[in-house]
Write a structure and sequence with these properties.
By secondary structure, this protein is an alpha/beta fold. It has a single domain (48-325), classed as Rossmann fold. The chain has helices at 6-21, 116-124, 147-161, 180-190, 230-236, 242-247, 275-286, 315-325, and strands at 50-53, 70-71, 76-78, 84-88, 97-101, 109-110, 128-133, 173-178, 213-216, 261-266, 291-296. An 8-stranded mixed beta sheet has the order 1-4-7-5-8-9-10-11, with helices on both faces. The chain has a 3-stranded antiparallel beta sheet with strand order 2-3-6, with no helix packed on it. Strand 2 (70-71) and strand 3 (76-78) form a beta hairpin. The radius of gyration is 18 Å and the shape is globular.
């Protein structure tokens, strides 16, 4: 299969921009330099998707790496100089949309297990998928730890602004995050009013709220005794204060009125302890936030949509029933 070229990547963005601007007064998606070409083939960035840069110029604060994206042998994406959305359209859209964020401790984004397979699964349910390629704090961004959260909030606002062009309901935009990607979208779900960056255009007038959050083996807390994660080291370093760790912990922000959560975890996870989802579940129940938590006996960390022959492979079907039950899918 052919590699994604700079010209092809920008062609998708340009084509969508034309569709978005036709006959409407919405803010434009301004012309950009092409998304850097990368080694991965169309399994990673399918040719039928559109690639939409998140920012009209440099991301807030500037800085960051240079050169092409880099995909390692096991699917770890790094050197993200230009954050973007990769749009995956179902054959028969039902009006729902989900942003997908892979994990990697904010050091890389796991593509082959936690971005592409979930996109295909959700497309099969009629859901439009927006695969989020977000900035990594350790890659020299001046925004530091806020960089991926700025990207995620901008992505939500961009999707909501152009909901009609994407054939989606602006009130049915959810998030699916794995590991650190679960931390990222969980924080967005719980802090929709957080001004992680100064508004730059009309897109930033849109709400950043999510209708729901599906989190698979997420990092929830950065507080002891669960502080030994790559997520904590990437966001607050090796020796943060308790207040710094609390600031970046999801349970700190659970309040009545937060969107519903669907949580999955394996009891034998040695990377992000299953206590993480137990903590979030308890905080949700205390505040009257709808939550469903499914704990599987085995699966370890990073099982994606599930490991063959293990009970954790059941979770996508369980999530589908949950999505239908709360009225997210028509």
């Amino acid at each position: 299969m052919k590699a994604l070229s700079r010209r092809h990547a920008m062609h998708g963005a340009t084509a969508l921009t034309t569709a978005l601007l036709g006959g409407c007064s919405k803010p434009s998606l301004p012309p950009r330099d092409p998304i850097p070409e990368t080694a991965p083939n169309s399994t990673v960035f399918p040719f039928l998707s559109d690639h939409i840069p998140l920012w009209p110029k440099q991301p807030p604060g500037g800085g960051g790496p240079h050169g092409p994206l880099h995909l390692a042998h096991y699917g770890e994406l790094t050197n993200i100089a230009e954050p973007f959305l990769s749009v995956h359209r179902p054959a028969t859209p039902n009006g729902a949309a989900i942003i997908v964020a892979g994990g990697g401790g904010y050091r890389y984004i796991q593509m082959t297990k936690e971005e592409i397979p979930p996109a295909r699964w959700l497309n099969s349910l009629g859901i439009t998928v927006f695969e989020l390629i977000y900035r990594l704090p350790r890659e020299g961004w001046n925004a530091g730890s806020a960089a991926p959260f700025q990207d995620a909030q901008r992505a939500i606002r961009l999707i909501r602004t152009y909901a009609a062009a994407f054939s989606i309901d602006p009130e049915r935009i959810g998030g699916l995050g794995f590991s650190a990607g679960g931390h990222l979208l969980g924080m967005c779900a719980l802090r929709p009013d957080w001004q992680s960056y100064a508004p730059i255009d009309e897109i930033d007038r849109a709400s950043a709220h999510l209708a729901l959050a599906i989190l698979a083996y997420p990092v929830v807390t950065l507080l002891p005794p669960y502080q030994n994660t790559g997520t904590r080291r990437s966001l607050v370093g090796l020796n943060p204060t308790l207040e710094e760790s609390r600031k970046w912990s999801l349970q700190t922000y659970v309040r009545p009125g937060a969107p519903p959560f669907f949580l999955v975890h394996a009891a034998n996870d040695r990377i992000a302890s299953a206590a993480n989802t137990a903590i979030l579940e308890a905080a949700c129940r205390k505040n009257g936030v709808p939550v469903a938590r499914h704990l599987f006996p085995v699966g370890s960390h990073g099982f994606g949509l599930g490991r063959p022959g293990m009970a954790c492979a059941m979770w996508p079907r369980m999530a589908e029933r949950w999505l239908r039950g709360i009225g997210f899918m028509t």
